[in-house]
Amino acid sequence: MLLALGSTFFQLAWSAAWGYTHVRIRRARGYARGRVPTGARDRFYRALNPVLFASQLALSVACLWSRSSFLLEFHDSIAVRSLGAALLASSLLITRLALRHLAENYAPCYDAHLPRALVVTGPYAWIRHPMYLAKLLAGIGTVLFSGSLWLLPSAVYLFIVTLRAVRTEERALSAHVPGYEAYCRHTRCLVPGLF
User: Fold this and answer.
1) Whether the predicted pLDDT of 74 surpasses 80
2) Helix (H) or strand (E) run with residue 141 in it
3) In angstroms, how far is CA 19 from the centroid of its own chain?
């Protein structure tokens, strides 16, 4: 019971911090003021994102308190849940660090805009898309933390949307941001030293 209570507190705290971070930065589309849109808009993902977020939170908490077969749990391992929690915490830290360096250059993947300047500091010194890496880590972390197969389709969908956004953004940045192609030659896309 104590473990379920602590895990529930972690999930609620992480969700509140993740949600607050993203709602604050996206408020009234302030990120778009004075910037050129890339033409990449995903209205479906924008509408679906809050629904997925809320359902992931509800399922994760339900899996901590219930052994119902409806939850389609594939594990009930403290070690796997801990790994999921570590990935969730890492995703939040990477997001906040990336936002600190992006500042006014941020735009969500579903409403991309060209940056005002090329950012090459902080995590951007090693990878070009730390925000997307954080999103992928959050997706994997949520599945592992919850242990529910119900969350696997949303994680796969998240991967598809994110990788599509990366490709679209790479093309737009290469075409419109001076120095981006040179920057690409000495950084990785998502994972330092690998990809």
Assistant:
1) yes
2) helix 130-146
3) 11
- What's the CATH code, domain 2-23+37-185? 1.20.120.1630
Task: List the one residue out of 60, 77, 35 whose CA is nearest residue 176.
Answer: 35
pLDDT in tens, 28-69: 888 889 898 887 788 888 899 999 999 999 999 999 999 999
Task: For 147-186, give one letter per residue: b (16+ CB within 10 A) or e.
Answer: bbebbeebbeebeebbeebbebbbebbeeeeeebeebeee
Q: What is the mean pLDDT of the chain?
A: 93
Tell me which residue of 71, 80, 99 sits closest to 142, measured CA to CA: 80
- Tell me the per-residue pLDDT of 113-159, one tens digit each, with 9 for 90 and over: 899 999 999 999 999 999 999 999 999 999 999 999 999 999 999 99
Q: Provide Rg for the chain, Cα atoms.
A: 18
Q: Where are the domains of the chain?
A: 2-23+37-185
Rounded CA gap, 92 and 76, in Å? 24
Tell me the C-alpha distance between 174 and 43, whole Å.
Answer: 24
Nearest Cα neighbor of 155 from 96, 163, 193 is 163
Amino acid at 167: R
